[in-house]
Amino acid sequence: MAQDPKKVDENSKNEQLEQYRSDDSGKDLTTNQGLKLSEDEFSLKAGERGPTLMEDFHFREKMTHFDHERIPERVVHARGFAAHGEFEAYESLEHLTKAKFLSKKSKKTPVFVRFSTVAGSRGSAETVRDARGFATKFYTEEGNYDLVGNNIPVFFIQDAIKFPDLVHAFKPEPHNEIPQAATAHDTFWDFVANNQEAAHMVMWTMSDRAIPRSFRTMDGFGVHAFRFINAEGKSHFVKFTWKSTLGVHSLVWDEAQKINGKNPDFHRADLHEAIESGDYPEYELGVQIVPEEDEHKFDFDLLDATKMWPQEEIPIQIIGKMTLNRNVDNVFAETEQVAFHPGHVVPGIDFSNDPLLQGRLFSYTDTQLIRLGGPNFHELPINRGVCPFHNNQRDGYGRQTINKGKVSYQKSSFTNNTPAPVSEAEGGYAHYQEKVEGRKVRKRSESFKDHFSQATMFWNSMSDAEKQHIIEAFSFELGKCDSIDIRQQIVDMYANVNLKLAQEIAANIGVKAPETGNTDTSKKSPALSQENTVKSAKTRKVGVIVAPDFNGKEVMEVLEQLESKGLQYEIISEKQGKLDAGNGKQLKIDHTFTTADPVLFDAIYAVGGPDVSKKFARNTAYYVTEAFGHFKPIGATHEGKKWLDANGYTGEPGVVTDDSMKGFADSFIEAITAHRHWTREV
Ligand code: HDD
Does residue 665 have its Cβ closer than 6 Å to ligand 1? Predict the structure, then answer.
């Protein structure tokens, strides 16, 4: 079904979706044919205790639909969560690209974004160590444009033909389907040892980037070099980056593993709640531009997806902002059925010859055909463009469009040769006329053969704490490899990245430490360290532990200040209900100690009360000890201070106590702004 041509604005997609939404509450129950039903709890039987009858069309329809409810999950990125929003251009990029959604300052375009883990199946936990998918669909007036990226700017492999091998290696091992959503097993590391182009991305996946605190606190990357083409036909290479306005912040590994048990839905719940409470996630879009003539000026190949473009060498120009402001109405209809494809482009955006990108251009439509059951998935509401579409494609499973007339071919005098292609000047997509020549070969370019320089740059750019986390992550993952031979191969391989890194891992996992290796510390990209990211306390969640008869007046003031600075808090006590907060106020208890857990908060504020049970004291000690061990800010006032004293935490970095309450909230918020306190001795 084609839509009327009309101006696209930020509301266009929402208005289009509205015609497909159905609110069933308050309505009469019917079959799918619209027949009203008088009974829905009992099947039709021959006698009250007799067999169910074949003629029970209602039973058959209900059961058949249920039996067919599941579709294949995505072969990768199966576990995901999505939201709607809008993109606003900060300026006109007409000098670089014809793309209309980037053509005017303040122009708004509706978007749909799906975040995902990569390895785990659809029901797997969310805070696993993995890359995160960051796929954005722009519903533009010229058709859908998909930017299908990850939260890591490089990829494991250089050529798409290896993708099935890579995925087979990191997925659970086929003989026992273990482990779920984890690379801590033999086959993944065997693949890495034998495909050393993975060295750089593995550095990222062993770093804190692979355990984000939230989808809201991670950046996104288009990974490949694409092309911008302007109205004069001039091409520039471009890389895309999404930058979270909250900065890039991560969990610690012990915490991440525990969250997977306490709340396997941690990331989706975080995104959903943030949008519901008006804390809309925001990401600025940045572009790095390289003129065609500069293609060979760098010490890496622009077409190699295992290389990033250091922003100190090729600056990032911020060109717009995306705001996610609406949750989906139905996860299956929208999040599950959305079909992304790096080949969904608009005039002004074109491809480079990156062999990973070239292969992706085949794979995505192919996978949707099996996953969404046929060639008409573009008609699903979430996938429909907001501009009209007309062609001679017809039929197929689930076809919804009723194409009128007898002609479904080019060219026909009956229709005056329409629908007709249009010229480039009228918006017709024309591929960039790159001159290409060469012999047919199955080869890797010489310029793709340096696998270690940027992995070393990444290592050199890390803070001490980040380096320590990387060593621990390698030690954990390799420590779970059964094969000592593979452990040794990986350690030897990483001596090419940094000798000390390899030696420290070797010492932890019981293999021989390499004696020689890379000790060069000269090349760095400070922007890679999360130490240098945006720091903000906004939207952080504080767990507040209170007991009956707590000092309501003072504590309520602290809570008001947290709220006024944009923080969230939840109250934890021994029993749910309400506590008297003085001045006629009451404080609602959100959680008992068991319905929450310290790993689910960014910070803990211990208040306590004058007279608490031994169990209460033990629980509070557990909360502050966990928070301390995860380097989290801890605040304590009133009776709460004694738990910090008892454990020797008072005075440690990020531990804020105040006898007089003067300035407590400010100091506590400052500690929360720092995110974690790595200099703490744990
Ligand atoms: Fe891919 C899904 C990102 C390489 C083949 N990929 C998928 C999704 C993201 C990415 C975010 C999930 C989209 C969604 O939420 O629905 N993929 C990447 C990035 C890559 C990459 C950033 C490297 C730069 N992918 C890649 C290669 C191939 C694929 C080399 C195959 C040649 N990817 C797929 C797929 C998926 C997919 C099998 C599974 C589900 C889907 O496409 O829709 O076709």
Answer: no
- Nearest ligand 1 atom, CA 368: 43
Q: Which of 150, 200, 360, 362 gets mutated to test ligand 1 (max ligand atoms within 8 A of its CB)? A: 360
**Is 57 annotated as a binding-site member?**
no
Task: Give the model's pLDDT for residue 1.
Answer: 38
CA–chain centroid gap for 353, Å, is: 26
Q: Could you tell me the distance, in angstroms and rounded to a whole number, from the CA of residue 360 to the centre of ligand 1?
A: 7
Q: 371 a known binding residue?
A: yes
What's the whole-number mean pLDDT along residues 412-441? 96
Regarding the beta carbon of 364 and ligand 1, being less than 6 Å apart is answered yes
Q: Would the annotation count 487 as a binding residue?
A: no
How much is the pTM? 0.97
b/e map of 639-669 (b: 16 or more CB within 10 Å)? bbbbbbeeeebbebebbbbbeeeeebbeebb
Q: Atom 3 (ligand 1): residue with closest C-alpha?
A: 149
Q: What confidence tier does 5 reach under pLDDT thresholds 50, 70, 90?
A: low
d(CA 116, ligand 1 centre) in Å = 11
Over 205-228, what HEC string results? Answer: HCCHHHCECCHHHCCEECCCCEEE
Q: How far is the CA of 364 from the centre of ligand 1 (A)?
A: 7
* CA atoms of 14 and 226, how far apart (whole Å): 29
Q: Domains of the chain by range and CATH?
A: 80-383 (2.40.180.10), 452-531 (1.20.1370.20), 535-673 (3.40.50.880)
- Per the CB < 8 A criterion, the answer to whether 505 and 471 are in contact is yes
Q: Ligand 1 mean position to 118 CA, how many Å?
A: 9
Range 87-117 burial, b when 16+ CB lie within 10 A, else e: bbbbeebeebbbbbbbbeeebbbbbbbbbbb
The span from the first CA to the last CA of the chain, in angstroms, equals: 62
Q: Name 117's bridge partners.
A: 132
Q: What ipTM did this prediction achieve? A: 0.98
Q: What is the pLDDT of residues 526-557, one digit of tens each?
A: 999 999 999 999 999 999 999 999 999 999 99
Residue 101 labelled as part of a binding site: no
541 exposure class (CB count in 10 Å sphere: 0-12, 13-18, 19+): middle
| One-letter amino acid of 146 | D
With a 6 A CB cut-off, is 363 part of the ligand 1 pocket?
yes
Active site residues: 77, 150
The closest-lying atom of ligand 1 relative to the alpha carbon of residue 157 is 30
Q: Which of 141, 118, 145 is nearest to 16 (CA)?
A: 141
Mean pLDDT, the chain, as a whole number? 97
- pLDDT band at 660; cut points 50, 70, 90: confident
**Nearby residues of 417 by Cβ (< 8 Å), 6 or more positions away:** 410, 411
Q: Report the run of H or E that residue 238 belongs to, with start and end.
A: strand 235-244
- For ligand 1, is residue 328 a contact (CB within 6 Å)? no
**What is the percentage of the chain residues whose pLDDT exceeds 70?**
99
Please give the Cα distance from 460 to 453 (Å, whole number).
10
Q: Omega of the bond prior to 526 within 30 degrees of 0, cis?
A: no
In a 10 Å sphere around its CB, with 0-12 CB exposed, 13-18 middle and 19+ buried, how is residue 1 labelled?
exposed
Q: How many CB atoms lie within 10 A of CB 498?
A: 24
Determine whether the shortest distance from the Cβ of 562 to ligand 1 is under 6 A: no
Give the residue ranges of DSSP H helices in 405-513.
453-461, 464-479, 484-494, 499-509
